Amino acid sequence: MHTSNPVLDPEHVDPPANSAFPPIPSLTEPSTFNQPKTDHRTLRRDEFWRDVPAYEKATSAEFGDHKWQQRHTVTSVKQLRETLGSRVTEAFFEDLEAGIAHAPMALRISPYLLALIDWSAPMADPIRTQFLPLRSQQQADHPMLRFDSLNEREDSPVAGLTHRYPDKALFLPQPSCPVYCRFCTRSYAVGNDTDVIEKMKLPATAARWEEAFAYIASQPQLEDIVISGGDTYNLSAGHIETIGRRLLGMPNIRRIRFATKGLCVLPQKILTDNAWLDALTGVVELGRKLHKDVVVHTHFNHANEITGFTADALGRMTERGIHVRCQTVLQHGVNDSIDAMTLLVRRLSFINVHPYYVYVHDMVPGVEDLRTPLHVAQKLERHVRGATAGFNTPSFVLDAPGGGGKRDVHTADVYDRETGISVFTAPSVKAGRKFLFFDPISSLGSDWQRRWTQPAERRAMIDDALARADA
Questions:
Q1: Cα distance between residue 238 and residue 210, in whole Å
Q2: Domains in the chain and their CATH numbers?
């Protein structure tokens, strides 16, 4: 005899006796599972710059103009004193002056960024932390740090062109930026000389560019060119068009990426420099006609950097079909918390910027206070994954010191959290070699910190990690 199965009422299904599973919640009860916070959609559109004494009389049109921003860019502590007045103490300016003297990057910051800093509490502000070094917060360099930690010069067949991956090269046409990040991985070459380092010179000359173009054209395996620097924001409209058309005209090149921090530090350029945006748009459209990919790679590190100016700039780029990806740098005190990183990722997605990478901070001198241990990146990746759509979830990577290229933070062959040493391999980049990364010493236990001060102990820890990687 056939009997139909009863229709189950999901509100009244009891678990079997002695079940290890918890009771099924009532479907009529309110759930927060699909009710994420929406604060990532709230962008500043107030006249926030009026809190800075030097900008209090600036109109919206003035502050929103890229030429006004460039004219008022701050490049010295003296100029910053004149800009901020009594908003901060003299002790702060003295701390900053001492910090700059021990920093590899010169001071250069836009009015836009300065106005976004919370000057009532600047010591902990995430934007101040990235651009204005304070001597009171700087730490001694890890003994394994060095300039050009990624071996870009070693992998350069011609000056200003790094060819590490089989089908990709990095082209550095000029060495300046609209703003100087104190954590720059290319501090060996970007910006003015400082008390800490005399920079490698990469002049923006036609002869040097021709050498780079000739090499790219001679390598049939090359398909992907990243145009960086410095910053492509500091290329003229004519240079954008010249470089773009030249590369797209090579049969082997299929992809071009224009890299710029500018969308973060000076979004006004996209809004008011029509000639520059038109030139970029023309290259993107030419690429589309040739069935080639032209995109922009940018660099945001904290949700506070994204305002109404940013959204309007990205809106213009979206209207023109310009695709933008973001490469974030993981930094202590800036974005190394779950809430800060998740908010950044979701806010980027909201303004049509695809989070692409989150980099573990490179091992460059002068910014040890900003570095984080590898396990922080691993933890953040676990929490960010699932917070938004997969295509808006960044890969958390470590750019292996010594030129091993980008490695997923979970793929270390060895990671000893006590010594802070991790070992990576890169079979498709430099087979047979091992690449070492070192957590900041301040993140280690006191006994291990002491061992790092002793060269013999240091060598023994490194040798042990390499031996374990061979096991």
A1: 16
A2: 48-131 (no CATH), 161-409 (3.20.20.70)
